[in-house]
Amino acid sequence: MLRSERKSLLRFLTIYLLSTMVLFTLALILFYNYEKHQILDRQREVIKQEGTLMVEALRRLHQSQNYALPYPQNPHFKSAIYDINQAYIFGDFKPQVISFTESYHIKDKQLYHLVTVSPYYLGAAYLLLKKPLDLRPLNQLLKQSLLVWLAALGAFLLLGLFLGRRFTAPMRQNFEKLNRFIQDTTHELNTPISTILTNIELLDTLYECEGKEERKRIEIASKTLSSLYDDMTYLTLNHERHRDIQACDISQLLTERMHYFSAMIEAKKIRLETDISQDIILQIDQNDAVRLIDNLITNAIKYNKPSGFLKIVLNAQHFVVEDSGIGMRKKDLASIYQRFERANDNEGGFGIGMNIVKQIILYYHYKIKITSKPNQGTKVSIQW
Q1: Strand order in the sheet with 271-276
Q2: Which of 28, 110, 117, 334 lies in the 20 to 30 Å Cα band around 250?
Q3: Where are the domains positioned within the chain?
């Protein structure tokens, strides 16, 4: 899956799941509260029936006038009676704080029920009953609700993936067509570019004729095309090719690439400063090393000012490319590695060079640091 496709799918899934799960969660909360209310209502009904039976027992005790009879008790409930002034008379429990305004209330996992007694049997105006709240059905309801929520999350995620792939399928097909077009185009470009460069070298070597300046322009244009071809090939075939990682003399390779870019540097009258240590050996695929060097130097030449300077430093610690070019704004540095992104639209290019650099940096676990200021230049440092 392409990176842009993954980003689009992730955005779709994020919006879809957030909106769907918020609505589902609200519905589940309403359902949970309704079921919780039903469970509590059933427990209230039980304690209400016990209150009715308790009042009837008090009535019989009052009518019998036999005060030696025991106070009516139930092992599943606690009860207490109060007079008209809300003073405690008797009971098998005595709470510290009582609410005489609520028929039912819950406190410390206990369900309380207040019954008004009329007439006042045994002088009791109020009967208070207490029963431990049965938490088992509430816990079971909460557990089932959480399981339903998780199951819904999984179902909505699978549905979102299915819908997201269906939505992104046209984009994927277009990218595949574009990718095939780029592969075919780069393949067709290889032969004419190689022919032009080879014949220019033969003309410079075998013949002394007029038009050297014109041939140099052709050489620069051809090398620009060749570098672009190499970048396009790297991008389209990088996932298919096998990296041949071995000891590579970066010092020698950098010297060769500087010679390759010499015509471009001379054409722009750039002052070149080099500090290249010898025998710098890295374990790297040579094609990766060439693409890393070429893209950084190409950018330093392309975005440099006429008669500016270009400084190249290579040692055992790092590789540095510094120029006196147009530079970049701070906000552009954050997106410079994105494919097809360009910090400056005035110069040519497709915005793929720094994306390739980033891929290589990540693969070999190097570190890259870019410092740049508008109209003051850019410095790129890569630590091995």
Answers
A1: 271-276, 309-314, 318-323, 377-383, 367-373
A2: 334
A3: 3-134, 244-383
Beta-ladder partners of 369? 381
The per-residue pLDDT for range 56-94, each reduced to its tens digit, is 888 888 777 766 667 788 888 999 999 999 999 888 888
Among 3.60.21.10, 3.40.50.410, 3.30.565.10, 2.60.40.10, what is the CATH number of 244-383? 3.30.565.10
Alpha carbon distance 224, 230 (integer Å): 10
For residue 146, what are the contacts with CB-CB under 8 A and spacing of at least 6?
none
Residue 75, preceding peptide bond in cis (omega within 30° of 0) = no
Tokens at 380, concatenated: 């790129």
Q: Measure the CA–CA gap between 78 and 263, rounded to whole angstroms.
A: 101
C-beta pairs of 196-202 under 8 Å, 24+ apart in sequence = 196/222, 197/222, 197/223, 197/226
Structure tokens at 305: 């000012």
Among 330, 274, 335, 278, smallest CA distance to 300 is for 274
